[in-house]
Amino acid sequence: MENKVKIRTVTLSGDGIANFESGKTVFIEGALTGEEVQIQIVEEKKKFALAKIDHIISASPDRTESECVHSKSCGGCSFWHTDSHFQLKQEAAYQTIQRISKVTLPRFESLIDEPVPDKGWRVRATYHWDGARLGFHAKKSKTVISAYECLVVAPQIREAVLNARDAFRNSRTHLADARFEIDGDDVFITSKSFALKKLADAPGISGLKLQDKFLGKKETVSTKITYKGIVHSVEIPPAQFRQANDFVNGEIATFVESQVPEKSDVSEYFCGFGNLTFQYVAKTKSTQAFEASSESISTAKSIAKKLNCSKLEFTRIDLFKVVPKPTEIVVMDPPRAGAQMVSERLASGSECRRIIYISCDPATLARDLAILVGGGFEIETLKFADMFPRTAHIETIVVLNR
Asked: If residue 265 lies in a helix (H) or strand (E), which one and from where to where?
């Protein structure tokens, strides 16, 4: 088997793709497009092989030295070896959508013109304690590696993680998870382990939720939403889903608002606690927003009441089982599973004429786009946003019309 290959492209997960002379595909961890590398086979499959770099014969001009001391072992990020990470991710995501959907796509654009900050952007993170280390899972493994100098989490979280590590070390806890999330200038911690209870009065900690018990100063977490062009601070329950990157999330919400026509009737599917909804609702004639989580719906209704927001109705419904009748304009931001059932309903009906689809998974988005295009929709715009810099994840925004 050959051990010298030329990299032709890169996957979303940061693996270079090459082919042996036999035509067999090989995925090489950390290799970049155009590089010639000597490899060592890690795993041999019938149709492909997995490999790691033994030696770089000819390096890409885009290759850089990693700034992160954890990058070789941690499974959280995939692209600390190049500053061209977002361009590589866009091209990989575009090819994935094209290959799976088999529909004609417009050329992609970046939602944000300037580079997105790649350090300190992560406002929430779950760490794992294995009895000795508090950190993230290693690459393609459940082994925990210490990640106390993680560059992508907010500085307040790094400090809180060190305090939590000390608390775990002084306990008899063998296994535990702890979620850290920004709460204004402080950090809120959610865990099932009471080993962290001593942090209730620690500087920089606003509160703890340990199982069902609250300790500390607060029982909610502060976040921001925009309504009628004004940024409001609102309270949400700890550990409720929220986007990890406040800056990019705001840019996406602003774009969604720009795509919703004035005085239109809008249906939003997978609305969460109204992360996108409140940004655009003031310009609509009416908005119906749907979400499966009862906690999210309760939070959304509470925010709407606080803001005296009319023309808006939140309804709890499992959109993987039932799809309410859509209106002329649809906004949807589903989880990684996508929105197959919603897409089938929109494609088969005639009510909807415009869709703004926000996706965190190119593969399920591609499946849904094939359904929607098959139902008469045309793709007007396809944009990518680097919601998760340096990682393998990417956010896609698609606008479709019929």
From this structure: strand 265-269
